[in-house]
């Protein structure tokens, strides 16, 4: 495998890797850092571009962080998810649509498309309600 011999080590226990580049109106790493701080968590969210600027851009550098947050609409890094999974890096994928609309990533009306929900009369099941699944 192309990421070998890099495997998950978590030697940098406080670092959480983000694949999302900073977007026009907020920096995701700063936002998550503040959220963690306000909740008493000793975590440091680092963007992949930040690691690159520090000279830490090998697969082993990625595998040394505690975990990762992958934003699936970040089209410039679509293969990052496969790299992280291949190394055994615990990867979290948010399911909220707010990150869908970001400058340079999607069209202006993309956010509205992701917030639409089929009426219950057409599709009575919702993916987040496991109790309503038949069988």
> Which regions contain 5 or more consecutive residues with pLDDT less than 50?
none
> What is the overall number of helices?
5
Taking all residues together, what is the mean pLDDT?
Answer: 76
Strand share of the residues?
Answer: 5-15%
- How would you sum up the major sheet? 4 strands, parallel
Placed side by side, the strands forming the largest sheet appear as: 2-1-3-4
Span of the ends, CA to CA: 39 Å
Apparent shape: globular
The helix/strand series, from N terminus to C terminus, equals EHEHHEHEH
State the secondary-structure class.
alpha/beta
CA radius of gyration is 17 Å
Protein model, in words:
- With 135 residues, the chain is an alpha/beta fold.
- It is built from 5 helices and 4 strands; from the N terminus they run βαβααβαβα.
- The protein has a 4-stranded parallel β-sheet.
- The longest helix has 11 residues, at 28-38.
- The mean pLDDT is 76.
Summarize this structure briefly.
The chain is α/β, with parallel strands linked by helices and 135 residues long. It is built from five helices and four strands. It has helices spanning 28-38, 48-53, 59-63, 80-87, 110-115; strands at residues 12-18, 44-47, 65-69, 91-92.
Topology of helices and strands:
Elements (H helix, E strand, L loop, with lengths): L11 E7 L9 H11 L5 E4 H6 L5 H5 L1 E5 L10 H8 L3 E2 L17 H6 L20
Index terms:
5 helices; single chain; alpha/beta; 4 strands
């Amino acid at each position: 495998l192309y990421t070998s011999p890099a495997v998950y080590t978590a030697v940098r226990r406080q670092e959480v890797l983000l694949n999302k580049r900073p977007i026009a109106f907020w920096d995701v790493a700063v936002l998550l850092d503040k959220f963690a701080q306000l909740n008493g968590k000793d975590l440091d969210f680092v963007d992949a571009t930040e690691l690159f600027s520090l000279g830490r851009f090998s697969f082993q550098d990625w595998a040394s962080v505690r975990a990762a947050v992958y934003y699936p609409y970040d089209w410039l890094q679509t293969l990052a998810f496969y790299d992280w999974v291949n190394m055994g890096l615990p990867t979290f994928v948010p399911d909220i649509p707010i990150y869908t609309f970001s400058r340079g990533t999607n069209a202006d009306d993309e956010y509205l498309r992701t917030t639409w929900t089929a009426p219950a009369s057409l599709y009575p099941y919702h993916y987040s309600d496991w109790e309503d699944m038949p069988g």
